[in-house]
Amino acid sequence: MTPVRQSYAELPLLKEHRYHFFFGNEYSIELYERLKEEACLHQCHYIGVLEMPGIYFYKPERCGLLLDVVPYGPEPAMHAIAYLDRLEAELWTLWQEGIFYLAGKEEAAAAFEQALLLRGIAPEQIVHVC
Predict the structure, then answer these.
(1) Would you state the pLDDT for residue 110?
(2) CATH code of the domain containing 14
(3) With helix as H, strand as E and coil as C, how does the chain read?
(4) Number of folded domains in the chain?
(5) Minimal CB count within 10 Å: which of 34, 73, 79, 85?
């Protein structure tokens, strides 16, 4: 597993990447909001997926976030990984050159990381955020 780089409060947007992908859960919203502001400031692109329990099913567009929300599944990150499979081929090509910020439950972040590695994402492109 890729080591945790730093806490989200201190994490800068990695501006050398034009594309930023976020994965996390309901506790990651503050991180996404902050990094989204930086991405927009530097004219970077971002998308992401949040796992949330059904009772908290959240509309991220209410906060102006370009994120999709999936429910928790019986397996860690199961629905978020399925989300990767639904990305259009052209879009996925762009994201393979991006940076991936992983937050949330450790088991889910590890499963999502494995899915990224299997899809050709280099370990250096994956940042674990605590």
Answers:
(1) 96
(2) 3.40.50.80
(3) CCCEEECCCCCCCCCCCCEEEEEEEHHHHHHHHHHHHHHHHCCCEEEEEEEECHHHCCCHHHHCCCEEEEECCCCCCHHHHHHHHHCCHHHHHHHCCCEEEECCCHHHHHHHHHHHHHCCCCHHHEEEEC
(4) 1
(5) 85
